Amino acid sequence: MPNQISSEPEQVLHVAYLLKMFPRLSETFILNEVLELERQGVHVDVFSLMAPGDGRFHGSISQLKLTIQYTPREKPESLWRKIWQLEPGLAPPMDRWEAAVEFIQRHQIPKDLDMLLRALIIGAKAKSAGVQHFHAHFATISTRMAALVNILYGTPFSFTCHAKDIFRETVDRVLFRDLVDLSSFAITVSEFNRNYIIENTPGVDPEKVIRLYNGIDLDFFSPSETVPSSDPIKIISVGRLVPKKGFDHLLNALAILKNKGFRFKTTIVGDGDEEERLHEMSRQLQLDADVEFTGALPIEEVNRLCSMSSLMALGCVPDSDGNMDALPTVLLEALGLDLPIVTTTLTGCPEIVGDDAGLLVEPANPEALADAIETVTEKIRSGDLVKGTARKRAQRLFDLTTNVATLRGYFEQSLASDR
Asked: CB–CB of 127/153 below 8 Å?
């Protein structure tokens, strides 16, 4: 008997992202991931627990098809009114309320009533919309909220954990383990991260912790046809101006190079708590003529500035509370642009750079950072760097289309096993 072709259309995968704040200028990896899921035919909704803070967005936000539903904190009586107005059948049975309260109390989750009520509203909206799976980023409030929605409504969820939610000394390892247990799977963005989680989270199921690199849009981050000046060499560094990015060590390295007569122009893109201190440090080191601080910029402008540069430098260091950069997105973008990289051996940086896409030095060592910048510059000037090396590494490991297709596959497996 010949195979019959079903006349029913294939069901579209419907995923909701549950995020603390969306969109956010510093979290391009989330925006890119959601955009690529939409390109691959996934219906995506976003539930954001906070409205955007400063009104600055990347131009690619306009490409999104989805609607963003904001569920901010409100007075309890206002949230209760919304719950009483839910259509019949959208509120979960009382035993699920009890299980959610027990989870909140067991882990002493802050703002307990607010968390419970907002989880009820988010879960009801998602159920009404036909959401099949939740995904959160960072194992903090967004993942806790996804776990509560799962307890209340049974909607499966997963999450991606990055850096502060893994490395900080204040991370609750028992809660982290329970979030993994409740989830369908937990993604983390480097092999270093995965090993760290397994070694530092007693009782966690290693089979549910998956390493999946963030991807970048290699059509957007493509090498420039023009060759930037190598005398002075143009250096770019991008990131939030916070201690773990190591911009103070980079400035010290640049001062060392300047005192040796090394010619350079450096652009530092980003803003943050360290901005005033770093500006003053640059002045004291007499780098004002050589270093430009641009503040935070949309990704389109960052791409343009990177294309005009010859190398990317980032001096990642551990923070005082144990927090570290896990897989700096700007280094992935540098690979896509075929820029050689100078950075440190911290966390996932060696997985980005490998043996041939730049040089790695020990963290918090300005002398070594200066030597590496000088070495890479000499290779650029002598033509010893093989064109396309960094780009090929990006294509092999960090292609957005490939890596998001893998993530989509995990979503589909989750739904198949939940049936």
From this structure: yes
Q: State pLDDT tens for residues 138-184.
A: 999 999 999 999 999 999 999 999 999 999 999 999 999 999 999 99
Whether 293 and 275 have beta carbons less than 8 Å apart is answered as yes
- DSSP, collapsed to helix, strand or coil, labels residue 393 as helix
Using only C-alpha atoms, the chain has a radius of gyration, in whole angstroms, of: 23
Please, what are the domains in the chain?
14-215+399-418 (3.40.50.2000), 233-397 (3.40.50.2000)
Cβ partners under 8 Å of residue 274, min gap 6: 241, 242, 243, 247, 248
Q: Which two tokens stand for residue 258?
A: 């300047």
How much helix, strand and coil, in percent to the nearest 5, is found in the chain?
45, 15, 40
Model's pTM, two decimal places? 0.91
The amino acid that residue 202 corresponds to is: P
State how far the Cα of 284 lies from the Cα of 302, in Å rounded to an integer. Answer: 27
Residues 35-38: contacts with CB under 8 Å, at least 24 apart: 35/60, 35/63, 35/64, 36/215, 36/217, 36/400, 36/401, 36/404, 37/404, 37/407, 37/408, 38/64, 38/65, 38/66
Write the DSSP symbol of residue 228: P
Rounded to 5°, the CA angle 134-140-143 comes to 15
- Residue 11 has a CB neighbour count (10 Å cut-off) of 10
Q: Is the pLDDT of residue 351 over 90?
A: yes
Alpha helix ranges (H) inside 337-399: 349-353, 366-382, 389-397
What is the residue whose two structure tokens read 């030095």? Answer: 361
78 has pLDDT over 80? yes
3-state SS, 91-155, equals CCCHHHHHHHHHHHHHCCCCCHHHHHHHHHHHHHHHHHHCCCEEEEECCCHHHHHHHHHHHHHCC
> How far is Cα 325 from Cα 343, in angstroms, rounded to an integer?
11
What is the per-residue pLDDT across 286-330, written as a single tens digit (0 to 9) for each?
Answer: 999 999 999 999 889 999 999 999 999 999 999 999 999 999 999
The region of weakest confidence among 62-71, 90-99, 174-183, 204-213 is 62-71
pLDDT at 378 > cutoff 50: yes
Q: Rounded to 10 degrees, what is the CA torsion of 40, 408, 330, 295?
A: 70
How crowded is residue 298: how many other Cβ atoms within 10 Å of its Cβ? 16
Q: Which residues pair with 295 in a beta bridge?
A: 269
Which residue shows structure tokens 């294309």? 307
